[in-house]
Amino acid sequence: MFWEKEIETMPVPELRAMQVGRLREMVDRAARTPYYGELFGRLGLSAGRIKSLDDLKRIPFTTKEDLRGHFPYGFLATPSEDVVRMHSSSGTTGNPTVVYHTRRDLDMWANLVARCMVMTGVHKGDVFQNMMGYGLFTGGIGLHYGAEKVGVMVIPAGAGNSKRQIWLMRNFGTTVVHIIPSYALKLATVFEAEDVDPKKDVKLRIALIGAEPHSEAIRRRIEEIYALDAFNSYGLSEMNGPGVAFECPEKKGMHVWEDSYILEVIDPETLEPVPDGEEGELVFTTLNREAMPIFRYRTRDLAFVYPEPCACGRTHRRIARIKGRTDDMLIIKGVNVFPVQVERTLMAFPEVGNNYVIVLEKVGPMDGMIVRIEVRNEILQGGIRHLDDLRRRIVRALSDEILFTPKVELVEPGSLPTTEGKAVRVIDRRAE
Ligand code: AMP
Ligand code: ZN
Fold this sequence. Notes:
The protein is α/β, with parallel strands linked by helices. It has two domains: 1-327, ANL, N-terminal domain (Rossmann fold, 3-Layer(aba) Sandwich), CATH 3.40.50.12780; 329-428, ANL, C-terminal domain (GMP Synthetase, Chain A, domain 3). 32% of the residues lie in helices and 24% in strands. Strands 4-3-5-6-7-8-9-13 form an eight-stranded mixed beta sheet, with helices on both faces. The structure holds adenosine monophosphate and zinc ion. Adenosine monophosphate (AMP) binds next to strand 7 and strand 12.
């Protein structure tokens, strides 16, 4: 199903031409901001110099530090009275990165989210339970306005309070949920405890999952537990939030809406572009924003672009599942490890339950890794020998994947900490 078929299936040359026109408009707008105004002045850059997409390379990358360094209004392109909302990123240290929106910006953003939702099969008549946090975080409010545009009934449940979530689902016949993947797994344990069958006692058919890195194995688990289709949703507050890239029914990569963003993939070390199919850092330029145009924003998120066109007919390029952020990479015993590699390995074991955590500690002068894993209830009843065998098999599989041997501890279901927001998968105690 299409929300805006003409744009979604626009022939690539037309789409590129549209991008150039919009890029020119963005440069014009951005020249009014203190930050880009000064920068463009120095570089002698103006909208007239943008003749093709190649000219984007005349503009330097923008980083999170640039945004923070010009807090609070250095990137604002409109008079402040035209701003109707602000959001900020989930970063924990220093000034947050703040993003401002005009009324038109919010309308365009909601339109992109509606496009994503309709693409996955959401339609009028659906009951949409939005289980993401409402507030400065863009996940809750972002989906909320998109869903209203589609015309579904929205239940603005917000994050947490699992029993109430289940109660809402049962009483209002929720068909679509928006949920953080780690929380979807946690919620499953509450269904179990409440003796409610997530396949039969609720009518879920679609889950929109995103906001944190997760493996294909996690998606499949969520689909199995709830008997629904789960679609990956990618976004970041600097680029509005959700609605930047989303999976279509092919479930192979997320279409980046190229009428609204220019996507580049670069080598984070050399900053040179990498070819399609090769992993690199995602870089985005806004093409349809009044209050806060941003050029070549370095997301620190790692993924690759699928080289071939998508079978669904949409012409906008697809990015693969996010492997993690460049700063999520752990260096242990000289080996580079992404938490999602550990996750992928664990989730291949049917005995493994719905939560895990990686703890890094100093063992003498060396770095050590402990992986604490919740196992399923029935496994605990199998006796110590059984458990020890499972533990040994997991250690072996992990060593094959990450090339050193971690310590593995199997724990009871529900015993590891959870959050209502993005999961904290790594606890680093090496500095303690
Ligand atoms: P925030 O701006 O606080 O909403 O955080 C945005 C960041 O969350 C992104 O830059 C990614 O690192 C992460 N993120 C969002 N959606 C996904 C997703 N579907 N898969 C993996 N990581 C994601
Ligand atoms: Zn597609």
